[in-house]
Amino acid sequence: MKVLFTFEITNDQKMRLENKFRDVTFQYNKKGDTTDVESVEILVTYSSEVDSSLLERAKKLKWIMTASAGVEKMPLLEIAERNITLTNVRGIHKTPMAESVLAHILALRRSLPSIYSSKESKEWSRPDDSTELMGSTALILGPGSIGSEIGRLLQAFGVKTIGCNRSGRISESMDKTIVFRDLMLELPKADYVISVLPSTPETRGLLTREHFSAMKETAVFMNFGRGDLFNETFLINALKNNEIGQAVLDVFEVEPLPLENELWTLENCVISPHVSGLSSKYVERALIIFEKNLELWIESNVNLENLINLFDGY
């Protein structure tokens, strides 16, 4: 059995794998290098590296472990037709992403941008717009592992949390859970509207112009899921017309965000270059999932953790 990594891991991590799985042959390529994919049964890579041409070359491929959470850009139907197993690293982003969301909220509510700016200009100026999280309400779109962790942290600050998903299934760290069709009822109550939704047929274009109009004029809208959740024109108009207070965006319809995109020019919009999930522990956590699944694969090839439904896309 041969396993190919198309991103670099540390020598200690290589040694651990090789000592634990002595009957497995491991090959470690640099990022994006799919040399020798023709001979591998298992491919450990990022989702952006897998396309139709790679699948055409990888005749022996049986399992793809993507070190990404999102798989929407992968050729899922072709993977299904080949009967290739696909797993991801769902869950490893929850800590850095939840901390990123909380950091942005605290920065805005405690006026940190103004404080930093005053320091740069050597101006002793006290902001007059600082407020508290205590007693506010957050509406979290996608209260899965990441959304629930965001909810847990916010509840510690006295924030009421409302989860929103397609099924209405009760989620951890949510005071209340609603379904997508009830969004319009809850949006006017939310001080923070936070999306960590994946890209699926049900979530693409989920938010409309009417949804932004229904938000509080002081609401902070945050998108840390996928950029196809809404048409960016709707958000730009809402920000320009002061229909909402602020936006914090980590994902976009087109990435990198084009220089001509009007979002760059809006003072009430924070641009984050898709970095909320970054962490020095990223690969370490991904390998924990991979090792568990490799043990299962060797034993029976069934019941793998984070198995992707190739037709639902998650």
UniProtKB/TrEMBL annotation:
Q: Name one Pfam family in it.
A: 2-Hacid_dh_C
Task: Output the superkingdom of the source species.
Answer: Bacteria
Q: Where is the D-isomer specific 2-hydroxyacid dehydrogenase NAD-binding domain?
A: 102-276
The family classification in the record reads: Belongs to the D-isomer specific 2-hydroxyacid dehydrogenase family.
Q: Which UniProt keywords apply?
A: NAD, Oxidoreductase
Organism per entry: Sporosarcina siberiensis
Please state every residue range assigned to the domain named D-isomer specific 2-hydroxyacid dehydrogenase catalytic. 8-300
Record-given protein name: D-2-hydroxyacid dehydrogenase
